[in-house]
Write a structure and sequence with these properties.
Distance between the termini: 35 Å
Order of helices and strands: EEEHHEHEHHHHEHEHHHHH
Number of helices: 13
Structural class: mainly alpha
Shape: globular
C-alpha cells in the first residue's frame, strides 16, 4: 500500500518516491557519510515515499570482500539505518541482491550504453587507474549502468545526490530518455534532490581532506559503532593549528581547516549555528572546544551504538524486516520490469506471440 497525502480537494494521492542506497563496504558508518548524507534521509520520510537499499551488488565491483564479512556488513548497515530513525513502516528498506529485477533491468540498459560512454565515467577512470584498466572488472565498468537500473526501477521523482554522484544521475537520465525514445515513454526523468546545508566533514588528522573510510587514518575517522571513549579520544587528539591566541576559535575553512571542521561537527550534532559556537568559545582555548565536543560526541554515539547492537542481536526480526522490504520493493520493481520487457519485445512466460 502506498503512503498517501491529502490534496486541497480532500482526495488522496501517492507521495512522490525518493530512492537512495549505500554500499556495505565498512563495519560502521562514519561521521562523514552520516552527517553529510544519511541522517538527512530521516526527514525525507515526512513528505516522500522513500526506498533505501543496501547496495551489496555494487560492493563486489572491486576486490570481492570475504563472503562472511559482506553478509555481516550488510546487516550492520540495515541496523544502522533503523537506529538513525529510518522507520520500516514508512520507508522500504531492502538489500539490492534480494530484488533480481535490478540486474535484469541492468542488462537491458547495458545494451543501450556505448562502451566509450561507460569508460568515460569519472569513477571508472579513477578506480581503474589505480591498478590499470586491464585489471579492472567488467562490473566496475558497468557499475553506473546498474546504478541507473537501481534508480529507474522505482521511477522515483527525486534521487538524493552528492557532488560525486551527479555524473551517474546524468547517465541515468540519458538512458531513460534513450529508452523512452527508442521504444515508448516508460521512465520519468528523476530529478536530483540536493540535501540542504550538507555538512562536509573532514579528516580529523588531515582536515584538508574529507573523512573517508578508504583514505582516512584510524585517528582521522570517527566511526559510529566505535566504543564512545575511542571516539572522544579522537576528537581530543584532532589537528587544529599553532595559532592559539585571542580569536583562535573561528570558522575559516581556508586558514583554519581543523578548527572549522570541529565547529562543523559540533554544529551538526547539536543544531547550533557555527557563529553562535564561535561566540561561545571566544577567548577560550582549543582544549575547551575539543573537550566539550568530545562530550557531545559521546552523548550522540552511545544510544546510536546501543540501538544498532540491539537490532543485530535479533537476527530473526532483522530478517523479517528485510523480507518485508524486499517484497514491497519487488512489487514496484516487477511492474516496471514487466513494462520494459513488453516494450523491448520479450515474450511473456506462458504466452505466445499472435
Amino acid at each position: 500500500m502506498q503512503p498517501m497525502s491529502a490534496t486541497p480537494t480532500g482526495t488522496a494521492k501517492p507521495l512522490p518516491r525518493v530512492l537512495s542506497g549505500i554500499q556495505p563496504t565498512a563495519d560502521s558508518f562514519h561521521f562523514g557519510n552520516y552527517l553529510g548524507a544519511t541522517r538527512q534521509w530521516v526527514a525525507l520520510q515526512e513528505e516522500y515515499q522513500p526506498f533505501f537499499f543496501i547496495a551489496d551488488l555494487h560492493a563486489i565491483t572491486m576486490e570481492a570482500p570475504d563472503p562472511k564479512l559482506l553478509r555481516e556488513r550488510s546487516l550492520r548497515a540495515v541496523a544502522q539505518l533503523v537506529a538513525m530513525g529510518i522507520d520500516p513502516e514508512r520507508s522500504t528498506i531492502f538489500l539490492q541482491s534480494h530484488v533480481p529485477a535490478h540486474t535484469q533491468l541492468g542488462w537491458v540498459l547495458q545494451c543501450l550504453t556505448g562502451v566509450g560512454e561507460a569508460r568515460r565515467m569519472t569513477q571508472f577512470k579513477d578506480k581503474a587507474a589505480k591498478g590499470g584498466e586491464g585489471a579492472a572488472s567488467v562490473g566496475l565498468l558497468t557499475y553506473p549502468i546498474l546504478q541507473a537500473a537501481d534508480i529507474l526501477l522505482y521511477r522515483p521523482a527525486y534521487v538524493p545526490v552528492g557532488a560525486d554522484q551527479r555524473q551517474h544521475l546524468e547517465l541515468t537520465r540519458d538512458l531513460a530518455q534513450r529508452f523512452n525514445h527508442r521504444y515508448r515513454k516508460t521512465f520519468p526523468l528523476p530529478e536530483p534532490y540536493i540535501l540542504e546545508a550538507t555538512a562536509k566533514i573532514a579528516d580529523l588528522q588531515n582536515p584538508t581532506a574529507k573523512m573517508s573510510k578508504s583514505t582516512s587514518s584510524p585517528g582521522g575517522i570517527v566511526l559510529l559503532l566505535d566504543d564512545p571513549k575511542v571516539s572522544a579520544k579522537k576528537i581530543r587528539s584532532a589537528v587544529t593549528d599553532s595559532d592559539s591566541g585571542p580569536g583562535a576559535i573561528r570558522f575559516d575553512e581556508e586558514n583554519k581547516p581543523g578548527v572549522s571542521n570541529l565547529l562543523t561537527i559540533y554544529a551538526a550534532l547539536t543544531g547550533e549555528e557555527t557563529d553562535s559556537l564561535v561566540e561561545k568559545y571566544d577567548g577560550r582555548g582549543y582544549g575547551d572546544l575539543k573537550g566539550d565536543l568530545a562530550d557531545v560526541v559521546v552523548e550522540f554515539v552511545t544510544p546510536f551504538r546501543d540501538r544498532t547492537l540491539e537490532l543485530l542481536e535479533d537476527k530473526s526480526a532483522l530478517d523479517g524486516l528485510l523480507r518485508a522490504g524486499a517484497e514491497r520493493a519487488s512489487e514496484v520493481a516487477q511492474e516496471t520490469l514487466a513494462d520494459v520487457y513488453d516494450r523491448v519485445g520479450f515474450v511473456p512466460m506462458g504466452n505466445h506471440p499472435a
